[in-house]
UniProtKB/TrEMBL annotation:
Location (main, coarse): membrane
Entries under InterPro entries matching the protein: Azurin (IPR014068), BlueCu_1 (IPR000923), BlueCu_1_BS (IPR028871), Cu-binding_ET (IPR050845), Cupredoxin (IPR008972)
Protein name: Azurin
Signal peptide: 1-24
Keywords: Copper, Electron transport, Metal-binding, Signal, Transport
CDD domains per UniProt: Azurin
One Gene Ontology cellular component: cell outer membrane
Lineage: Bacteria, Pseudomonadati, Pseudomonadota, Betaproteobacteria, Neisseriales
Locations listed in the record: Cell outer membrane
Pfam families assigned to the protein according to its UniProt record, in alphabetical order: Copper-bind (PF00127)
Entry annotated with the keyword Electron transport: yes
Keyword flag Metal-binding: yes
Length: 194
């Protein structure tokens, strides 16, 4: 599969490189109309290359969400998310949040999840979550303050959750964070609706 993808991107690169060469000659001519025609022509091979890349990408993922409707957040053994801000596109019908744990420590020692709530509810969700077990992903059962949450994962694992952007009220502040006991201080960020 990797080889196949490499071939596709090599082909896409060749296409765009080739497009560049074709347009170099006419663009050198002084007439303004010629130059405009040349830049219009150069748009074609470029978009061909882009669509070749796009089809290669969709081949590799089974149920790919709509374009731009997904974000990947990495977490590690240092109790850190790699993002301080999560941008959720309001125009998406569904928005997928992928959580990856790039560390090696087990879930019991360094488990991470992503929980989203209003910022003002975060402390309560975290302290109530601490009373839940790891099996319940450190989220109180039926907690209405929680808009979405992923399951708790350990090193090398990956999970995801899909949120409905319409559940975020205009003018409210939202946060994402990890509810593993003791992690909230370092593992939190703001959710921004764009
Ligand atoms: Cu954590």
């Amino acid at each position: 599969m990797k080889t196949y993808l490499a071939l596709i991107s090599a082909a896409a690169f060749a296409l765009s490189a080739c497009g560049g060469q074709e347009t170099a000659a006419p663009a050198a001519q002084p007439a303004a109309s010629e130059a405009t025609a040349a830049s219009a022509a150069s748009a074609a091979p470029a978009s061909e290359a882009a669509s070749a890349e796009a089809s290669a990408a969709s081949d590799s993922t089974a149920a790919a969400p709509a374009e731009g409707c997904e974000v990947v957040v990495n977490s590690d053994d240092q109790m850190k998310f790699d993002k301080q801000e999560l941008e959720i596109k309001k125009s998406c019908k569904e928005f997928k949040i992928v959580l990856k744990h790039t560390g090696k420590m087990p879930k019991a020692a360094m488990g991470h999840n992503i929980v989203i709530s209003k910022a003002e509810d975060a402390q309560g969700v975290v302290s109530d979550g601490a009373g839940a077990t790891a099996e319940k992903d450190f989220v109180k059962e039926g907690d209405a303050r929680v808009i979405a949450y992923t399951k708790l994962i350990g090193g090398g694992e990956e999970t995801s959750v899909t949120v409905d952007p319409s559940k975020f009220a205009e003018g409210s502040q939202y946060e994402f964070y990890c509810t593993f006991p003791g992690h909230y201080g370092l593992m939190r960020g703001t959710v921004k609706l764009i």
